[in-house]
Specification:
about 240 residues; alpha/beta; Rossmann fold; four-stranded parallel beta sheet; three-stranded antiparallel beta sheet; 8 helices; about 40% helix
């Protein structure tokens, strides 16, 4: 199995550092759902926080698909915490963040990559404003191959592609490229995918580690502004807009 999207271990340290830099000596709550993907993502984030000698003042784990989370949120006072970190699917993240806003929570809100999905933006609506997340794909980059892809996608759909769309596009092109080279033979297709790495896609350079996972680093955070994913400056390049 090959993964085009960066694994949790690649974005978790970035969101951990961004959260702690934002709150300073303040405290935060971790809200996570117990589905497989969210549980593993939360585990990586907690590990990244522990490496920085910090952890949540309170952790609340909820069942996926929970629609009434108000009773769970009563476990903390909104004026005692500086931030909330939400690790859940796009749908569950929208439910949790809407509930935080309705509760009157005024602290910063951080989320995992799922808050960068178009579904989250649609479901969360105005509640998504100001949420910070790891940037897995920059749809505002119009000066490269990614720009041409974004433009064509917008012309067909009326909205920009999210990170999952971009990674799916590259995964499909990689598979088709390998099939063209290898023919309809599973072992040969797999070997072809190995030999194609490193490969330039719309998301950037795609390169596998020995287990087939992406090694492309995640270096930038983004913030949701007026329904759009707006990249924050790259700390490696002070000139980044």
């Amino acid at each position: 199995m090959f993964s085009v999207a960066p694994g949790d271990h690649l974005w978790a340290p970035l969101i951990a550092r961004g959260l702690l830099e934002s709150i300073g000596d303040g405290t935060f709550v971790l809200l996570a759902t117990t589905d497989h993907d969210s549980r593993l993502a939360a585990q990586e984030v907690v590990g990244a926080l522990a490496a920085l000698d910090r952890g949540p003042a309170l952790r609340i784990d909820l069942q996926p698909g929970t629609t009434d989370v108000s009773s769970s949120l009563e476990r903390f006072s909104d004026d005692s915490l500086s931030a909330a970190l939400v690790i859940a699917s796009a749908t569950d993240s929208a439910t949790l963040i809407r509930a935080l806003r309705l509760k009157g929570f005024t602290g910063s809100i951080f989320g995992g990559p799922q808050v960068g999905r178009r579904l989250f933006l649609k479901l969360a609506g105005a509640a998504a404003e100001g949420v910070t997340l790891p940037l897995l794909f920059d749809s505002t980059d119009r000066g490269s191959e990614a720009g041409a892809f974004v433009q064509q996608f917008e012309e067909r759909t009326g909205f920009p592609p999210d990170w999952a769309v971009a990674h799916t596009y590259d995964a499909t092109r990689l598979l088709l490229d390998s099939i063209r080279r290898a023919g309809f033979n599973r072992a040969a297709i797999r070997q072809g995918l190995i030999e194609l790495s490193p490969w330039h896609g719309v998301v950037g350079l795609i390169e596998w580690d020995p287990t087939g996972q992406s090694v492309r680093p995640v270096t930038r955070l983004a913030m949701i502004r007026k329904g759009n994913i707006v990249p924050m400056p790259d700390p490696r390049n002070p000139r980044t807009d």
